[in-house]
Specification:
The structure is a single chain. 2% of the residues lie in helices and 57% in strands. The chain is mainly β and 633 residues long. The protein is globular and about 75 Å long.
């Protein structure tokens, strides 16, 4: 094992410990016992794929048991403070971070950026929880290594690690959800032989229409999906090679589809009082989405440096049918990315790290001209970014500082749209942070800035978008969107009680938004993309976690998320901003009682969400009343 490798020792029931390996020093690890039962020991190489968790506000959530314990992967992630979800049933979901979503929240899967029409509300995240072990989250614009466009935040999903054992290890899981009669099956196998490691997973899901709180079913919210993925790794001394392939196919229906103004249609006209076995079958309108992801990862580890190289290719093929004959849309989006990275460890104690790298991205948007409609013309973008990040850490204090420069060129030459567009966008992003630890108190403050170039959809849209029931018009006059954010985080904890306070302020200049024009085209309301000069977002997130001393296996947790979004250029608010919320969870762990282990009774939990009234909304939205959601598991 090379010197300066970070080792994270953890065991369920004990406080984890992070140490830096030195070959000439004795390695002795003592973990402090906590108040939960013991499970298994594991070792991880680094702090985090996103950066140093002491210097950057990074949150982690395990996805180990998400398949059996939650209705959806994104539903489990939305339990974090400041995180919400846009959903049209289980088939179409996406994450909202501090009021921002879509193009402002960047998603990575095993080191590769996922681009799959995330600008639109009728598209999901593009993959499932199959084979995933953990997700890391950065709120705001501090993720310099992974692009400047993550103004709202970044999600980094990672597969379950490889295992080192000659005997194959596998699983088969199935579950059913009676709210939509969802049937979901997963299977997987992990194996290693010598220096070779192999993971293989598969999934198939089928769901009928989703049941609403009043007992009616939202017509055509049904979906089916399948997924297959495998990973092959070879490790030799200080060199590591990994190849991954992921295929995901889904057929979601488009619920709430009407011709003309949807505000004139009664909700009851879009629902049914019951479902039949035939309601598992697809109907129109619907989509066929195929995603393919290829990833190659190379790592070289030495005593004072670490080199990594990622290359990936992502293909998103979307076909949308409104009728049973020709498709309404047939669009292929390809994304190719190269990411070299080199980390040096400096100083006598190697407590200074210099991280330099680049990110080169090619993206193509190609239409099949046989389709009835084209919403976005053929377009191409080429982005190259270069960054340098310095981390310093000594005893109980540390700081980091990073800068990134991006140059993005977007071109489109489409006679059908009468477009001849060629424009370059370039700017600098930065992030500076400092932390201080005193006894059980941790203070961290970060100041960061980033920019986002307009997307193809925002620049070139000109047509009916059936998934949103509106006619959308882009603007080639759109320019760069700039963001600056200050984020402060205070943490305190002991053996029984933990407390987190996280206020933040974000200012976004030239905020890109879509707004109604008041016009009408073919019965559809016309919306156009524009920019607001000044948008402010501020809020505070709090978290309290309590373990009573008298009852060690009882966990009580409550999070508070208060957010205010202010559009200084309009009397209306921003679109899709979630209401303030209080999330409470009580969990009783039965694993301490040996007599109950034979019954496979793991835990009992009660989860409650209270959403306040949302009276700040966009021009085409409506006031949302307060409500409660209770989940007993």
């Amino acid at each position: 094992m090379p010197n300066n490798t970070y080792l994270n020792f953890y065991k369920e029931g004990y406080a984890s410990k992070l140490v830096k390996y030195k070959s000439d020093e004795e390695l002795r690890i003592v973990l402090e016992k906590l108040h939960v039962s013991l499970d298994e020991v594991g070792v991880s190489e680094s702090y985090s794929d996103l950066g140093n968790t002491k210097l950057t506000n990074i949150e982690k959530k395990s996805l180990k048991d998400v398949f059996l314990n939650y209705n959806s992967m994104l539903g489990s992630i939305s339990q974090l403070s400041g995180v919400d979800m846009i959903s049209s049933g289980l088939g179409i979901q996406k994450i909202v971070i501090r009021g921002l979503s879509g193009m402002r929240v960047v998603t990575y899967l095993n080191g590769m950026q996922i681009n799959n029409q995330q600008w639109a509300n009728d598209h999901g995240i593009g993959f499932t929880d199959l084979g995933l072990g953990e997700v890391e989250l950065i709120k705001g614009s501090s993720a310099l290594k992974y692009g400047s466009e993550a103004i709202g935040g970044l999600l980094y999903f990672k597969d379950i690690p490889f295992i080192s054992q000659k005997t194959p290890s596998g699983f088969i899981s199935t579950k059913m959800n009676n709210s939509s009669y969802l049937i979901n099956n997963q299977a997987g196998i992990k194996w290693s032989l010598g220096n070779f490691y192999f993971n293989l997973f598969g999934e198939y899901s089928l769901s009928t229409d989703y049941r609403l709180p009043n007992g009616d079913y939202l017509f055509n919210s049904r979906f089916k999906q399948s997924a297959y993925k495998f990973s092959l790794a070879y490790r030799y001394k200080k060199l590591q090679n990994i190849f991954r392939y992921h295929y995901h196919s889904e057929t979601p229906g488009i619920p709430g589809h009407v011709h003309g103004d949807p505000s004139l249609v009664d909700l009851y006209d879009l629902t049914s009082s019951s479902v039949e076995l035939t309601d598992f079958k697809e109907t129109r309108p619907n989509q066929y989405v195929d995603n393919q992801l290829f990833i190659y990862e190379l790592k070289y580890l030495a005593d004072n440096l670490k080199f990594s190289f990622y290359t990936g290719h992502f293909i998103n093929h979307l076909v949308e049918y409104e009728q049973w004959t020709n498709p309404g849309f047939d669009l292929t989006l390809t994304n190719t990315q190269l990411r070299p990275n080199l980390t040096f460890y400096l100083g006598k104690a190697n407590n200074i790290s210099l991280n330099i790298g680049a990110q080169i991205t090619f993206q193509d948007n190609i239409n099949d001209r046989e389709a009835n409609d084209i919403l976005i013309p053929d377009a191409y973008s080429f982005n190259r970014g270069f960054y340098a990040i310095v981390d310093y850490e000594k005893n109980n204090i540390g700081f980091n500082s990073g800068v990134r420069y991006d140059y993005k060129n977007i071109t489109s030459d489409d006679e059908l749209f009468d477009i001849d567009y060629n424009k370059s966008f370039y700017s600098t992003s930065f992030s500076n942070g400092i932390f201080y630890e005193y006894l059980n108190n941790i203070f961290r403050i970060t100041y960061s800035g980033a920019y986002r170039a307009p997307h193809f959809a925002e620049l070139f849209s000109d047509g009916v978008h059936h998934g949103t029931n509106r006619y959308e018009i882009g603007s080639t006059e759109l320019d760069i969107e700039y963001s600056n954010q200050i984020d402060f985080k205070y943490q305190w904890s002991n053996n029984h009680l933990g407390f987190v306070l996280n206020p933040f302020i974000q200012h976004i200049k030239d905020f890109i938004s879509i707004n109604p024009t008041g016009g009408n085209d073919g019965g559809y309301k016309v919306y156009e993309y524009l920019q607001y000069d000044n948008v402010g977002i501020k809020g505070v997130e709090m978290n309290i976690h309590y373990h009573p001393h008298q009852l060690h296996n009882l966990h009580l947790e409550q999070t508070y998320s208060f957010l205010q979004a202010d559009n200084k250029d309009s009397q209306f608010g921003l679109a899709l901003v979630p209401a303030n919320s209080i999330k409470s969870k009580a969990l009783f762990d039965f694993n301490k009682y040996k007599k109950l282990l034979r019954y496979k009774l793991d835990y009992l939990s009660l989860y409650h969400v209270y959403k306040f009234e949302q009276n700040s909304f966009a021009e085409y939205e409506q006031l949302t009343m307060s409500y409660n959601v209770i989940n007993l598991r």
